[in-house]
């Protein structure tokens, strides 16, 4: 999987790359508008992470360029701008997703995962993991071919874990994933624990072996 | 309150009254003086005419006596008597009040008299001439009447002039006042004042222009600062967040290290939130949420209650809902949602264990209340960075954002402490 990180903040780009660097992902970098244009003209990427404010030009122009050449690369905008208008503009031109800075790397990884899956598998978007089978479009789950009913939040959690296999996800990242911007407004993140407990119980009851590990009570890791 | 122009009018009127009142006796004395001196002169003329007339006659002694007697009978107001004196004493002038011959005694007339001595053919005669003078009280009355008439004319003139001046001269002032009243610093539009050819108003306008231009620039700088600072902070925050996420992946972390790293997340997400909220405030102030639409409030409230449901019941709170069907407002949807979520979160955060949260929605207002012990400080509640309680740290901007959004749409925000309930209300139609 090739990923292009178009971001002028070197350190952030490297952190993203380090987080994603397992056997599946290969990251390349572009720091300026021109570098980015050069790269997208020559190569194809599975996913492009696009910062909107770049030295030398507006990131949205790169998006327009991609669409002009009918490139199929998935694009996730990562921007410090988070107004609704920016989001709408980005998504209308053809970005697949929009993530406002600052974000958790686990959130980004999950979104990259879902963008790549959508691009690659078209309509039959089914993930198979051991005895687990997830239909992303129908939002249904089978364990050993038996359906398991998860709530929307439990389903969201499961996808976050699948997109971050073998990585530790902090409790606050989970809380933000579940409740969006309001997570830190809440007194405690115990509700995360409740959802994870319920999800785990449903899966284990249906015969799925427990791959979810608690890390010192500070986070969780899906080992597969 | 008095009108500015009515003050000098009052003073002018009083002054005019005083001057005219003083003028009455002055007029009287002057008229009387002129009159008397004119009459004295006239008497002198009469005297010299008589003297020369009589001297021209050449009569015998008998005839002479008869003529004098005849004179005294036929010429009223003059009297000639033979004097016993040898040398003529100086003339004397006098004023005398005397009853008319025909009328009753009370009806006195004033006479001006000249008592003189004339020499006719070597003999000394005593001549008295008297002439009727207008009575003092009649003169004073006439003068007073005329003065009062003029005073009334003067007063009417003052009032009419005052009114005309007020409407014309004060026109630029009122126009400036109206424009100042409708001026909104938030809108960032420079004010446009009506030109005036009156120096004072033009000076006032110039001073206002300067003051407002300065205010606008300070206001703009302040907002730009907030927006830029927040913007610039987003990237380092993102770097920091990603570093922590990376650090967590380290396999060799001990439990205490791991907990330390996790504890970094709480303040970090708080900073991110404050930053996002400041950016949001700057955007609302800059009116970057332009598009309004008709929002079904009933639907919006229900959606968010569903989303927040688990948090609502987390503290074992009872939720009482009273939501009207088909309540709607016209506004920007994301702003209304932010306002609603902030109010709900505020109630959730500050509610007590086993407390009650009430949500009431009608076509006119939205009221969200939660149980509490003590009333909050109304004055500071909606200000930025003022948190009501120290044990539940928040960004301190939630209610400031609620107020800013409400202000944008002219909705009225109200806090009340009623029967141990903190009650926050948004009145969508405050003028009704």
What labels would you give this structure?
heterodimer; A: 224 residues; alpha/beta; five-stranded parallel sheet; four-stranded antiparallel sheet; 14 strands; 42% helix; B: 432 residues; alpha+beta; five-stranded mixed sheet; 9 helices; 18% strand; rod-shaped; His_kinase_dom (chain B); transmembrane helix (chain B)
Summarize the structure.
The complex is a heterodimer of chains A (224) and B (432). Chain A has helices at residues 10-20, 33-42, 59-68, 84-93, 105-121, 152-163, 171-179, 190-205; strands at residues 2-6, 26-30, 47-50, 53-54, 57-58, 74-79, 97-100, 126-129, 132-135, 140-143, 146-148, 168-170, 212-215, 219-222.
Would you mind describing this structure in some detail?
The complex is a heterodimer of chains A (224) and B (432). In chain A, helix 2 (33-42) packs parallel to helix 3 (59-68) and helix 6 (152-163) crosses helix 8 (190-205). Chain A has eight helices and 14 strands. Chain A has a five-stranded parallel β-sheet, with helices on both faces. A four-stranded antiparallel β-sheet of chain A has the order 8-9-10-11, with no helix packed on it. The model of chain A has no long low-confidence stretch (mean pLDDT 87). Chain A has 224 residues and is α/β, with parallel strands linked by helices. In chain B, strand 10 and strand 11 (421-427) form a beta hairpin. A five-stranded mixed β-sheet of chain B has the order 6-8-9-11-10. Chain B has a four-stranded antiparallel β-sheet with strand order 1-4-3-2. Helices cover 55% and strands 18% of the residues of chain B. Chain B has 432 residues and is of the alpha+beta class. Chain B starts with 5 loop residues before the first helix and ends in a 5-residue tail after the last strand. Chain B is rod-shaped, with a radius of gyration of 50 Å. Chain B has helices at residues 6-56, 61-74, 136-169, 171-181, 199-248, 255-285, 297-314, 333-350, 398-408, and strands at residues 78-82, 92-99, 108-120, 123-133, 293-296, 318-323, 328-331, 356-361, 365-371, 412-418, 421-427. Chain B has nine helices and eleven strands.
């Amino acid at each position: 999987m090739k990923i292009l990180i178009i971001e002028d903040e070197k350190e952030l780009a490297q952190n993203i790359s380090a987080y994603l660097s397992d056997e599946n992902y290969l990251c390349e970098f572009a720091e300026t508008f021109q570098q980015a244009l050069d790269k997208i003209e020559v190569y194809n990427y599975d996913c492009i992470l696009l910062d909107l404010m770049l030295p030398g030009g507006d990131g949205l122009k790169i998006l327009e360029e991609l669409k002009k050449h009918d490139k199929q690369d998935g694009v996730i905008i990562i921007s410090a701008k988070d107004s609704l208008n920016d989001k709408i503009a980005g998504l209308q031109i053809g970005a697949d997703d929009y993530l406002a800075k600052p974000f958790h790397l686990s959130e980004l990884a999950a979104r990259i995962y879902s963008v790549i899956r959508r691009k690659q598998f078209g309509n039959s978007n089914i993930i198979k993991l051991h005895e687990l089978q997830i239909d992303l479009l129908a939002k249904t789950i089978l364990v050993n071919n038996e359906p398991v009913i998860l709530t929307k939040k439990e389903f969201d959690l499961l996808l976050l874990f699948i997109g971050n296999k073998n990585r530790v996800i902090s409790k606050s990242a989970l809380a933000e994933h579940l409740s969006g911007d309001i997570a830190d407004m809440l007194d405690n993140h115990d509700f995360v624990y409740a959802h994870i407990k319920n999800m785990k119980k449903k899966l284990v009851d249906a015969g799925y072996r427990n791959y979810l590990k608690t890390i010192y009570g500070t986070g969780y890791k899906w080992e597969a | 309150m008095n009108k500015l122009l009515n003050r000098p009018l009052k003073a002018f009127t009083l002054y005019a009254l005083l001057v005219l009142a003083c003028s009455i006796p002055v007029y009287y004395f002057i008229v009387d003086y002129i009159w008397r001196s004119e009459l004295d002169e006239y008497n002198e003329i009469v005297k010299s005419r008589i003297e020369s007339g009589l001297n021209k006659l050449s009569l015998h002694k008998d005839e002479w006596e008869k003529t004098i007697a005849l004179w005294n009978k036929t010429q009223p107001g003059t009297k000639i008597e033979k004097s016993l004196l040898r040398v003529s004493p100086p003339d004397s002038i006098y004023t005398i009040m005397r009853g008319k011959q025909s009328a009753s005694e009370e009806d006195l007339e004033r006479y001006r008299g000249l008592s003189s001595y004339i020499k006719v053919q070597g003999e000394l005669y005593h001549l008295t001439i008297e002439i009727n003078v207008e009575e003092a009280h009649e003169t004073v009355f006439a003068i007073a009447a005329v003065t009062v008439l003029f005073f009334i004319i003067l007063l009417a003139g003052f009032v009419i002039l005052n009114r005309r001046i007020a409407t014309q001269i004060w026109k630029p002032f009122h126009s400036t006042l109206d424009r100042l009243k409708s001026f909104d610093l938030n809108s960032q539009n420079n004010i446009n004042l009506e030109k005036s050819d009156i120096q004072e108003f033009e000076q006032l306008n110039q001073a206002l222009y300067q003051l407002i231009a300065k205010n606008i620039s300070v206001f703009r700088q302040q907002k730009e600062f907030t927006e830029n600072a927040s913007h610039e902070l987003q990237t380092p925050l993102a770097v920091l967040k990603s570093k922590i996420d990376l650090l967590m992946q380290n396999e060799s972390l001990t439990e205490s290290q791991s907990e330390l790293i996790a504890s970094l997340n709480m303040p970090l997400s708080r900073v991110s939130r404050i930053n996002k909220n400041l950016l949001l405030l700057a955007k609302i102030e800059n009116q970057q949420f332009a598009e309004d639409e008709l929002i079904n409030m009933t639907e919006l409230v229900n959606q968010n209650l569903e989303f927040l449901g688990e948090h609502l019941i987390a503290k074992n709170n009872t939720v009482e809902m009273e939501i009207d069907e088909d309540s709607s407002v016209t506004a920007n949807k994301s702003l209304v949602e932010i306002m609603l979520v902030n109010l709900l979160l505020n109630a959730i955060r500050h509610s007590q264990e086993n407390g009650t949260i009430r949500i009431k929605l009608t076509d006119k207002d939205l009221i969200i209340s939660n149980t509490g012990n003590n009333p909050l400080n109304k004055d500071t509640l909606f200000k930025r960075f003022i948190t009501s309680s120290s044990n539940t740290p928040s960004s301190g901007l939630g209610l400031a954002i609620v107020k800013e959004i409400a202000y944008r749409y002219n909705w009225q925000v109200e806090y009340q402490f009623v029967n141990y309930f903190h009650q926050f209300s948004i009145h969508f139609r405050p003028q009704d």
